[in-house]
Design brief:
- This protein is globular.
- It is built from 27 helices and six strands.
- It has helices spanning 3-40, 43-67, 72-78, 91-107, 141-146, 149-165, 167-197, 204-248, 252-263, 273-278, 300-307, 313-325, 330-337, 358-364, 370-382, 385-391, 394-405, 410-423, 426-440, 448-459, 464-478, 486-503, 520-534, 538-552, 574-578, 582-596, 604-616; strands at 82-83, 113-117, 125-128, 136-140, 353-354, 602-603.
Length: 628
């Protein structure tokens, strides 16, 4: 399945989950009603019990989801995670950060915050959050110590597949709903304890009935909750394994990590079992040891054999014996196997033209290949150290990102400088202008989006009032005199979307449902602006526009009408287009690609424009659209 099909599958999974949860709630309510009826024979009490049960489950679910409204960070912190600094020099943490950054750049998404569970010796990891803008990737200390670079990359790629496939928002909502189901059991336990220690009296019968209800409903809730969670999780884990192999184009890393889980004493277990049970469906490996109907992951041997069909239990036993005597050291294996880092590949010239087709580009959305990982390594190396330093410091990250948005035209840049000074301060405006003139003006076009991706996790650390002011400033900069280029405008939009979603992750986590016919005018506006920007004469632009229109709305005859206000007309199109259902978005990506490539030539700058537009619409593309 490609990205759009996986998104559609995730939406169907969410719908099935809602149905299963409603059935589970119905079963719990019926059980409560049955016990209350036997005890009281009162229809009024049964009605009260029904409403009370539904209220407890609903309030518990909403409370837990609200407590996770901050996205991935609360989950990582709940499990004792420690944030990895952007400028860390500790070797194992630096290796982890390099791997995460390379996969982020190869995937075309912002670099997530990275956490380490320092007190966990087992090999495990998870991704949490509502979207790519608030995502967190966490790994255990055991994974850092025991896995070599290839294996660590396989595990991180597995977690990125959860990010890209839309599993994270499903996982967080699953935590919330299950908490609501189990709330009755938690309340019942307290009532049961009160019944045991409350002494004797005329209410002892009612207390015993309440205790019995607590026992029955607690077990029912636990049974339904764990079974539903396990069923959903096993399906998504199989898909994540397959996606990780698709990303890295090799099975050795992922299978090696799974073998070490099976061969080492600590396996993938987590010590904080009470917290781990709640998030067990998010983990890379089985963190709590449930099996059968309640197993959140496929059997370990089954996962390994899906990657290496000839691998057997006797080979796993041999590895267990070997590692008892001499546990593996991931960093030492890197040296022995020559895995210190990727070999990289040369970036194309800034004026080079690419050969791409609409289906080729759509197939690459959120689907980086081995070439993209090698190119990501080259991109990281090619970014000047001075810019990387600016991207890793809180004090300089905002001037850096604003510098990316400044125009090359001196008069327009001065106008943008005034906008920054008016909304933030003169010193930051001066800093942004210096960065643009000295470091960004001659930067290779392929390095702008990756630089923004590296800077984003540092930007997220700024207080909300500063981020609100930053978004206001970005809006002013890209609207200055209406003369800003389409790329700079779209980059500003992409930054705004990412900051907005990081501030209110649960608010913007939605699967789109709209169809192309409901956004025909917005779609026509986007195509017209893109066609006008990429073609010097009106006739060529019109042909490009029609080529794109036929991809999505073949029966419509919307005339080519480039808006008088240019790129600023796009302000009204983003939210309706982002609300398209996944398969409609696939057609939209193909249509925009058709408009960009209609003249048979796609420059590196045009490819970066296409990546920026798709990124703003949550369809991340890898850094180079042409593959060998």
């Amino acid at each position: 399945m490609n990205f759009f099909e996986q998104q559609a599958a995730a939406r169907r999974t969410s719908a099935r989950l809602v149905i299963l949860m409603l059935l589970a709630v119905g079963g719990i309510v019926l059980a409560v009603d049955g016990v209350v009826w036997v005890a009281t024979q009162s229809p009024r009490m049964v009605l009260f019990a029904t409403l009370s049960s539904i209220a407890v489950i609903a309030i518990g679910s909403l409370y837990r989801i609200a407590s996770l409204g901050g996205g991935g960070e609360p989950v990582a912190q709940q499990l004792g995670g420690t944030l990895v600094p952007e400028n860390t020099t500790e070797p194992s943490l630096r290796r982890l950060r390099n791997v995460v950054e390379e996969i982020s750049i190869a995937s075309g998404v912002p670099v997530p915050k990275i956490y380490v569970l320092e007190h966990e010796a087992g090999i495990n990891a998870f991704a949490a959050g509502y979207s790519t803008s608030d995502a967190v990737v966490a790994v255990t200390r055991g994974a850092l110590d025991r896995l070599n670079r290839d294996e660590l990359q396989g595990v991180v790629a597995h977690e990125f597949s959860h990010i890209l496939n839309g599993d994270m928002r499903l996982n967080i909502r699953l935590v919330g709903v299950l908490f609501g189901i189990l709330m009755i059991g938690l309340i019942g336990r307290k009532i049961l304890e009160h019944g045991r220690f409350g002494g004797r009296g005329k209410n002892v019968g009612a207390i015993l009935v309440a205790a019995l209800v607590a026992m029955i409903i607690g077990y029912i809730g636990l049974f339904f909750g764990r079974m539903i969670k396990a069923g959903v999780s096993r399906t998504r884990e199989k898909l994540a394994d397959a996606s990780a192999v698709q990303f890295t184009r090799q099975t050795r890393g992922l299978s090696g990590a799974l073998k070490k889980i099976g061969g080492l004493h600590d396996g993938s277990r987590l010590n904080q079992r009470s917290d781990a049970e709640e998030v067990s469906h998010m983990l890379f490996g089985d963190g709590i040891g449930f099996s059968g109907l309640f197993a959140t992951h496929p059997p370990l041997l089954e996962r390994i054999r899906a990657l290496e069909p000839k691998f057997g239990g006797e080979e796993l036993a041999r590895l267990q014996a070997q590692w008892i005597a001499s546990p593996p050291d991931g960093m030492q294996e890197d040296v022995a196997l020559g895995l210190a880092g990727g070999s990289g590949s040369r970036l194309p010239g800034a004026t080079q033209e690419l050969s791409v087709t609409p289906p080729m580009v759509a197939a690459q959305v959120a689907a980086p290949a081995a070439d993209d990982y090698r190119r990501a390594d080259s991109i990281v190396i090619a970014i000047p150290d001075a810019l990387r330093d600016l991207a890793s410091e809180r004090a300089s990250v905002m001037p850096l990102l604003l510098g990316l948005l400044l125009a090359d035209d001196e008069a327009l840049a001065q106008h943008q400088h005034m906008e920054i000074a008016a909304r933030l301060d003169g010193e930051m405006a001066d800093h942004a202008l210096r960065i643009h003139q000295q470091l960004i003006a001659d930067l290779h076009p392929m390095l702008r989006l990756p630089l923004a991706a590296l800077a984003f996790p540092v930007l997220r650390l700024r207080p909300r009032p500063q981020l609100d002011a930053f978004m206001d400033t970005v809006h002013a900069v890209v609207h200055a005199d209406g003369q800003v280029s389409l790329f700079e405008y779209c980059l500003g939009r992409l930054l705004t979307v990412q900051v907005r979603e990081s501030l209110d992750p649960s608010r913007y986590a939605r699967f789109g449902r709209r169809k192309p016919g409901s956004v025909r005018n917005e779609f026509a506006t986007l195509l017209a602006v893109v066609a006008q920007a990429g073609h010097e004469d009106r006739a060529s632009a019109q042909h490009a526009y029609l080529a794109g229109l036929q991809r999505v709305l073949p029966r419509d005859h919307l005339p080519y009408a480039p808006p008088g206000n240019g790129v600023l007309a796009l302000d009204a199109v983003w939210e309706p287009l982002d609300a398209l259902d996944p398969l409609a978005k696939q057609a939209m990506v193909e249509a925009v690609t058709a408009a960009v490539s209609h003249d048979g030539r796609v420059s590196v700058a045009e490819a970066e424009l296409l990546r920026t537009i798709c990124g703003a619409l949550h369809c991340p593309l890898p850094p180079m659209l042409e593959r060998g």
